[in-house]
Specification:
Order of helices and strands of chain A: HEEEEEEEEEEEEEEEEEEEEEEEEEEE
Number of strands of chain B: 12
Order of helices and strands of chain B: HEEEEEEEEEEEE
CATH superfamily of the largest domain in chain A: Galactose-binding domain-like
Oligomer: heterodimer
CATH architecture of chain B: Sandwich
CATH class of the largest domain in chain A: Mainly Beta
Chain lengths: 351, 199
Amino acid sequence: MSRLRFLVVSVLLSAPAYVAPRTAHAVHKSWVIRNDGSHCAFSTPDPALDNYWQYSLLNGASYTRTVGCPFALSARWGSTSPSVSLPLWAGAWAANIYVDNGTPGTALTCTTRALLASGITRYSRSVSTTSGGEQRLTTALAGDWGGNLETYETDTVRSMYFDCSLPAYSTVYGHKVRICQRLGGANDCGLTGADGHGENTVRTNSGADYIQVSGIECTTFNNNEVSRTHSGFVNSSVGYSSVTCPLTLPADDTNEAIGTMYSVSVHYKPQVSNQYPNCWLNWRDRHGRFDGTAEDKWSNEFTSSVFGYVYATNISTRLPVGAGIFCFVPPGMTIQGITAQVGVSEVSGGG
Amino acid sequence: MRYRLPLLLGFLLTSSSAAAYVYELGPNYVNMPGSSCRPATASGESALYHDNGATTVRSNKSLQRLYCPIARRGTSFYGGARLSGSTPPPPANTEYKVNLGGVTVYGGDSSTTANLTCFTFGSRRSDQAVYYGAAKSLCGPTSLGCNPGDIGSGFTGWNTMRLSAPSSLSTVETVNFGVSCDVPNSSTVQYLESWITPN
């Protein structure tokens, strides 16, 4: 009797070893690709009305304009064990864009578009709101793009972007897509955290990656006297210029890291010695919010260094929907680029 | 006490059957819409359209120089701690190094008086010395692009060009690199695909 009880208990206690791992590590994996609003550009630019600020882009016009928000599809690693190839397709678990409709009653509409290797651009479902204020629009959810992109999600993608009609005085804060690591059948992602936004799609960070952003990506707010060169972004005016440099955060594995930026540096070349830019990290934190809103955050001013950069360390950014560097740049100075060490999510699951 | 054996057995089976992904397969392909390209000056935006994921020079404007970023995100393989342990630390100064394999640019040239020409570049962090890759122009005979000096300006149409990385760029520290394109009126940069060996 005692042996029988031992056998039964043994089977019961060891059962999770056979069952739980396959459930816990079921392959619903993706790479979380985030870009912020200052990566966006209006279809018909107008420097006087294109208000790049911190990590966002505001439509300063009194009318609706079309804006494109590109994804940098990068750092979509493959795995050597188990063997999983690079996910270069358009398959997605979810895609979101975080906006503020500044003209209640006027439709703010977004679609995700993907130019595929076939040369044809496919599109997701369109999502629209006439409600005013800050909100999130979801063009892909539960692994489904809608539109005619879903049918072609296994095609290789050449470029991907949000296309939105943005009413007057409205803002794009950031956008993201979760590109599936595997496609098809039980491996397809999208079975949990359908909208890619909820509490079950985040983890505390457990590692860190370095990122680098080139100075040519920076933009300015209402100052035409700035220029890009092969050395970076130059303030060509006689006074200080407000400069925004977007951060392309690491691609997180499946879950967004509730993270920290361990170090952030703005590299610059002064026109005269003892000159440095005044810089801050700005981000929009959605931590603890599940209604599409987020909170504006900023760091202390960066510390100057004699080595040609200003820097900040150990900034708890938590869950940014957009993050960027904002600097007051002295005349003649070149912003060469940004580097940062950013927390990333743990490797999700196994084979 | 006697129940610890099955528990230990279960734990070992759990560990061995759930090997974590090992993200050591690259390269880092970076796919950027052409709409991410920016003009040489802020006021130069007025000479452009950024629609349909592309950047196009307006028909009534002169040739424009564009700067197209290569936003690679992580500079090394994924650093999230693995279930089986931790990734090794990245090489020193990994955020300053880039090993660019090459770039494919897809675009359309509508001008009969100038070519759509692109090249890669990167500047050294210490002194801003600029390293340039060989320039290529869109042309008809090959999807690799042509040397600008070998062709006239008569090509019109859509094609790709293959750009090589600047020689020696991978050996220096840089925080600013990308693709420069000289784009005639009514011509378009549609997308860029780069491949980078992670540090």
